[in-house]
Specification:
Helices cover 34% and strands 16% of the residues. By secondary structure, it is of the alpha/beta class. The chain binds iron/sulfur cluster (SF4). The site of iron/sulfur cluster has 15 residues, from helix 1, helix 4 and helix 7.
Amino acid sequence: MDTVTSTTDAPRIGLGMPRMPGVRGRLKDIPAPRPKRVLLAAPRGYCAGVDRAVIAVEKALEHYGAPVYVRKQIVHNIHVVTELEKQGAIFVDEVDEVPEGAHVVFSAHGVAPAVVNAASDRGLHAIDATCPLVTKVHREAVRFARDDYEILLIGHEGHEEVEGTAGEAPDHVTLVNSPDDVPNIEVRDPEKVVWLSQTTLSVDETMETVRRLRERFPNLQDPPSDDICYATQNRQVAIKKVAQEAELVIVVGSANSSNSVRLVEVALENGAKAAYRVDYSTEIKQEWLDGVSTIGVTSGASVPEGLVKEVLLELEDAGYGEVTEVKTAEEDLMFSLPKELRRDLSGNRDARALGGRTRANAGA
Ligand code: SF4
């Protein structure tokens, strides 16, 4: 799957797009030790699960009319949430905030069965936009719990995805936040233990956690397939390569986006002298650029490409107009729209135009 493109023969990215108002000339072009350039990581930005979830809300708004309620942020990006709010989406924390009989979309991060039941009890029309790769982990949890395994779920306490997965088998799941948690883990039967994980973790840190778990529980069973998803892994591989040559890395993504925060950590662990996460280009500080010749840029899996382009435009103002893409993988995974939407859109022009699949599948 990996197709590594060297930075020397990689394509140049044009910057001839219209500028956003209010950011022109904010950053100054100050001298650097070597020629200034940007290394732009690829893959970056939207994954298949995010694309599907965002389109699900847009299609629900078009088909059912506003408002459409969304439990939690549909994806962890403030810009996406704000834009959907403008179209008529109302974001709530729990389904008891949704009027009876209304449409509610479950976010890409997934929900526990208790949430599905609560929505049903309330007579809500639920559209489940849980990413299929999160659903896969839910199914693993159900299966291992049925076989009476103790499930060591590696993930971050309080994250919606972890709450949803743990909710599938609350009596069998023990949360492991980090490698440092391992000495304190207690299990009923060390012979019957399996690890699963959140989809958006650092691959390296997760493998370290697993190594330590296996030291304590030699019969620890692995998941049937990788739980950390393809998009998380691909974005980390790309930024690792970029970070080897970049003094500064800028990650576009929101503070509550696990995979975006991991990209900052991975950049710092792999050679970048500094790495910062920004929601918007206007958060880039002039002092970050002092003495910097090469800047790496990437974005989390819930970030629209337009936000990255704004960053590139601001960096161009500061003299970093040479942009080279560093591509380490091709991505072509696509998911069908949630089945509830496909059912309701069937026979509808939108459903036929999309073939029941996402924007990416429609080639847009
Ligand atoms: S980051 Fe991975 S698990 Fe999360 S929505 Fe994207 S593809 Fe699905």
